[in-house]
Design a protein that fits this description.
By secondary structure, the chain is an alpha/beta fold. The chain contains 18 helices and 25 strands. The longest helix has 25 residues.
């Protein structure tokens, strides 16, 4: 659309808004009927580690949403000289899983426990055995059952349990619903029924430790919806929560709220069977849409759903780019001491480019990017750790490559299980995330690490909120008769701009050597966790060798 056409579309409300609450940013993206981004906004935030819990205060959720929306609305007005009064459809996405429970009067019963908390091992072991289905530590049902095992007082008061996206959607629309992709990280889904697995719900309800509670698991979870189904409308109160100026009108169609994994699949056109994608950021995960069931239960592979309800094999790692970001900040500070103000894009480009000259195995340097615990390698909490021997090849080139390898290492370990034991194949994996803002480097390293061609699209660095906007637009076109995968192929990705890189044999071999050394050194990381303890705000030790002293 040209400027005049876009301005008219905004005036008439022929737009779709995608809002995504990610780990480090709350982003909003507005698109028109041609699926082009016409405006965006963002708000930077960080999770807090308080009293042994990774969390975000809900007050900041709304501060961030309003700030992100304010920037988007200002972007609209500055470009098109139109106030943002009507929006055709709105979709909310957020980081998946975690624990948000509310009482009958809507009061939050505990601080939000995010996906990053590795604190539910006892619950996951018991539930996985009961269901014969892998229950990861970060899933909502794992957090609920762990709270039961811990005899936490709030459990008896639960009236509603949801995800972050489900919570925001509830506040904006009044509807307690959830998209099937996000729902699959709350409780296992039955593909045929398109709903929570009824057999597993019965098993859970009949557990001795669950029976005494006054609620029913079927009643406290949100209703499951698939992509394209209307999920209510924006209420007057919801519009006021989005737009502090009070300009935005109510009535926008709401899409089913989804997790960031689902929006990543949409943004990379990876919802059709035998397609796959990789999303990298604070965490990293790969998603391969299955055309056949897994042969057995793997504790490192989750079975979740696409936004339209197809099963997906998911390898999820809790850590990816946070340690790289921390080291980049050190280099930025050093440059500042020299009077050089390095902007982020220039800084990361300068660092990543030196990795091209590194030894293929990073010269014997090893890094563990564990800001938090890591399920794939069985680490209960995080201690970022860089290790080298006295005679290794210690230089900047190898150091940066070791950081990039470390970001992808847990993902590679999980993907090796999927490929070598389940023989799951995909022609190519489509990648998205901030690490790919610098062209080629991280993409090539990921291709080498997974020994699979990696494609990056034009929207790689900001795909999630755009993907949610596309899902919102899909609800508006519900009468088209197209399935989600056909809708994406025929309408959204007619002419995708992509770059595909194939694995390099020398890089594949180098990464394999790095991973062997990485796995050999895992006991060092475990010792660091045991010996280097942390304290909460009350001075109590959290984990580690001194726990309980």
């Amino acid at each position: 659309m040209n400027l005049i056409e876009t301005s008219q579309a905004i005036k008439e409300g022929r737009t779709s808004l995608g809002l995504e609450l990610g780990s480090t940013q709350i982003k909003s993206v507005l698109i028109t009927d041609d699926f082009e981004t016409i405006a965006s906004g963002s708000y930077v935030w960080e999770n807090q580690y308080k009293d042994g819990i990774w969390t975000y205060p809900l007050e900041q959720v709304w501060d961030g949403i309003r700030e992100s929306y304010k920037h988007l609305a200002a972007d609209v007005f500055s470009k098109y000289h139109q106030p943002l009064v009507k929006i055709g459809a709105i979709g909310v996405s957020a980081m998946m899983h975690g624990y948000l429970t509310f009482s009958k009067n809507g009061k939050l019963l505990t601080p939000f426990r995010t996906w990053r908390n590795n604190m539910t091992e006892a619950a996951t072991d018991e539930l996985t055995e009961l269901f014969g289905f892998n229950i990861p530590q970060r899933w909502c049902i794992a957090h609920l059952y762990q709270a039961i095992l811990n005899n936490e007082e709030h459990v008896a008061k639960i009236d509603f349990m949801t995800t972050l996206a489900g919570y925001v959607h509830w506040q904006l629309s009044g509807e307690k619903v959830i998209g099937i992709g996000d729902a699959s990280g709350a409780f296992p889904i039955d593909e045929q029924a398109g709903n929570y697995n009824a057999e597993f719900m019965n098993l859970f309800s009949n557990m001795e430790k669950v029976k005494p509670y006054p609620w029913d698991i079927r009643a406290i979870l949100p209703k499951v919806l698939k992509a394209g189904q209307p999920a209510g409308t924006l209420t007057k109160e919801g519009a006021a929560m989005l737009d502090a100026k009070g300009i935005l009108a109510s009535g926008s169609i709401m899409a089913p709220p989804e997790g960031d994994a689902g929006t990543g699949m949409v943004a990379t056109n990876s919802v059709r069977k035998r397609t796959g994608n990789v999303s990298v950021g604070t965490s990293a995960f790969s998603m391969v849409v299955l055309d056949k069931p897994l042969r057995k239960v793997h504790r490192d592979i989750d079975v979740v759903m696409t936004p339209d309800g197809s099963p997906v094999a998911m390898v999820h790692t809790n850590n990816c780019s946070s340690d790289i970001n921390a080291w980049a900040e050190i280099f930025k500070q050093f440059a500042g001491r020299l009077g050089i103000d390095l902007q982020p894009d220039k800084l990361y480009e300068a660092l990543f480019l030196v990795a091209v000259k590194a030894e293929p195995d990073a010269g014997g340097l090893v890094n563990y990017s564990y800001l938090s615990g890591e399920n794939i390698t069985k680490m209960p909490s995080g201690r970022p750790l860089f290790v080298r021997t006295a005679n290794c090849k210690f230089n900047l080139d190898n150091f940066v490559l070791s950081q990039l390898y470390a970001a992808f290492a847990p993902l590679k370990i999980g993907m090796d299980i999927l490929m070598n034991e389940e023989h799951i194949e995909t022609e190519v994996l489509i990648a998205q995330g901030g690490l790919f803002k610098t062209p080629v480097i991280a993409q090539q390293i990921l291709a080498n690490a997974l020994n699979t061609p990696i494609t990056v699209m034009k929207t790689a660095s900001q795909g999630g909120p755009w993907g949610m906007a596309v899902l919102a637009a899909y609800v508006r076109e519900k009468d088209s008769g197209l399935s989600l995968d056909d809708f994406l192929d025929q309408k959204v990705f007619e002419k995708p701009e992509t770059l595909t890189l194939n694995p390099e044999p020398i890089g594949v071999e180098g990464c394999e050597k790095y991973i062997k050394l990485y796995q050999s050194g895992l006991p060092v990381e475990k010792t660091a966790i045991d010996m280097l303890v942390e304290k909460n705000s009350n001075g109590r030790f959290l984990g580690g060798y001194l726990n309980g002293i």
